UniProtKB/TrEMBL annotation, chains A, B:
Protein name: LacI family transcriptional regulator
Key words of the record: DNA-binding, Transcription, Transcription regulation
Pfam families registered for this protein in UniProt: LacI (PF00356), Peripla_BP_3 (PF13377)
Domain HTH lacI-type: 3-57
CDD domains according to UniProt: HTH_LacI (cd01392), PBP1_LacI_sugar_binding-like (cd06267)
């Protein structure tokens, strides 16, 4: 006969409530107690009935997180931050990868898998504002990213334009005038690339520096290899520049490697600034000046807002757009231009 | 009234079978057809009944992947490889992070969430061989990692001892004699650190080089910061060395940064070799010689073996241990010692 909750409680020498708390992964359970319950569950091969449980409470204690690509360090570090934040709130995170593909993203939003979780944190990349009706789903949803604005759900995002303007102003303040960009997307207006390029152009304009299209390095993806390729193309074009703004850190780190292979010194000959403040940026040679876009704040806010929506009965609460604070993290890769 | 499968098929102008194929995320569906079905699903707000579906087929088309930490690049790149491999087989992956904590790992194995997937690929870190009975679960399970050997499930792993011996032999062949290690774990015999340290000692012994405990840098975790701290401690100790073997790439990259801050040249003064072949190792300065432990092969094999178990009715099939092939990837960080 299958073991019951009562059997587990009896073997572990705890109350049924305690067993239930362990199964529901509630925080603040003494580790030794938790271990006794887990040992009893294993000994009896007890399998809680998820459907019964979720019918009772109406909740699973699990939230979903969908990101484009875990092999991009930004999303791996974001996922880690969301998981740590969810843990503090006593909920578990199930992660899915979309590849940034529009059809996959739409499929994910309407997938029956959504019934397995209480809500979803969704970092969109393939969909755009024309698709925002797809976000009108029947479950709590928090949107991340820079692809859809003004949609029907809560949206937690970063100050892309302001932060990119600040990064460019930082280079201009150091006396740099010929600032290359790595990672632009042809024709993109919104999206991370489009918004960050706009911030760059605003900073140039404010400083009276003419925009030179020859300084813009286009890439499709934002991996190190894309940054390296774009920098090789810039160097081959013969265009002169004294600084580079990589639209994310991995692009910038790939570009820095190519600059150094070409015998250019960073920051003396070319100053470099990235965007993301990855862990890696503290250990590269030179260390990378970058924008911290508020990743921890974004993760914490997204989890908090999603849990509020899950707990709320007020369906009329209007969608909110919440912007994280950014800051420039100055390291070795930027310094004043030589006189 | 709730929309039905028939409504979706009618609106999309396709057969019910095609709608079902899209919902089940089968491969080889024409993108335009898939999009029509997804649009119809969105228009009708159709929600397939997962429980009914999984009762019919007995399968969900979803597999789980549990890893210690996505912020460690090795696991992010492994997760990406598993997802890409699963995609080729037409299944979706749900990822969970355990933090490498034993109690969390045991909880995950017995969690009701396991009913949501057809099977689990589990990269253990906190559990050890004494816990192998916890792996006797009622669903298909493939174990990864180096913490549990001889357990009751299929196990896909890497040749840790052989690969670490080869890494050390590579340094010895270049004329290096005083080889520091970064990332050892005090008292560990199995586990990645224990096995790789064993390979290091075997290579020294074969070459007649005495083992010097003063050359071993201990860390708790394997992040860049741990590698940097361990290298600072080695330098502060005054011990002399002409090479460093970092037990993973992130440790080694952290250690390299500290060596260069101290004015030591890599590879001239100190040669460096890592373990993992992360994408980052191709772009660091210098690029990092490392062990490719067969991550892609491990991911592909784990998915294939798990799907075989899910499809198989032969419960008596004995557990298999499958070892991936490794290779040394030579880059700039290793070169012959000066005469």
């Amino acid at each position: 006969m299958a073991a019951t909750l009562h059997d587990v409680a009896r073997i572990a020498g705890v109350s049924i409530k305690t067993v239930s708390n362990v199964i529901n992964d509630y925080p603040h359970i003494r580790p030794t107690t938790k271990q006794r319950v887990l040992d009893a569950i294993a000994e009896l091969d007890y399998r809680p009935n998820l459907s019964a449980r979720s019918l009772r409470s109406g909740r699973t204690g699990v939230i979903g997180l969908a990101v484009p690509e875990l092999s991009l360090s930004y999303f791996a570090e974001l996922a880690d931050a969301v998981i740590r934040s969810a843990e503090r709130h006593g909920v578990t995170v199930l992660i899915e990868q979309t590849g940034g593909d529009r059809a996959r993203e739409i499929e994910l939003l309407t997938s029956p898998r959504r019934q397995l979780t209480d809500g979803l944190i969704f970092s969109a990349l393939g969909m755009d504002s024309d698709d925002s009706e797809y976000l009108r789903v029947g479950y709590p949803l928090v949107l991340l990213g820079e692809r859809i604005f003004g949609g029907p759900t809560d949206h937690v995002t970063m100050r892309n334009v302001d932060a990119a303007r600040a990064a460019t102003e930082h280079l201009i303040a150091l006396g740099r005038r010929r600032i290359a960009v790595i990672g632009a997307h042809e024709g993109e207006v919104i999206g991370s690339a489009g918004l960050r390029l706009r911030g760059y152009r605003e900073a140039l304009e404010a400083a009276g520096i003419p925009f030179d299209p020859a300084l813009i390095g286009y890439t499709t993806l934002w991996h190190r290899s894309n940054g390296a390729d774009a920098m090789r193309a810039l160097l081959a074009s013969g265009v002169e520049f004294d600084a580079v703004f990589g639209l994310n850190d991995t692009l910038t780190l790939g570009a820095m490697r190519v600059l150094q292979e070409a015998g250019l010194r960073i920051p003396k000959d070319v100053a470099a600034i990235g965007f993301d403040d990855l862990d890696e940026a503290q250990y590269s040679l030179p260390t990378l000046t970058t924008i911290d876009p508020g990743r921890e704040e974004i993760a914490e806010t997204a989890v908090r807002v999603l849990l509020e929506r899950i707990a709320s009965t007020d369906l009329a609460l209007p969608p909110r757009e919440i912007l994280a604070d950014f800051r420039i993290v100055e390291r070795e890769s930027t310094a004043p231009a030589a006189a």
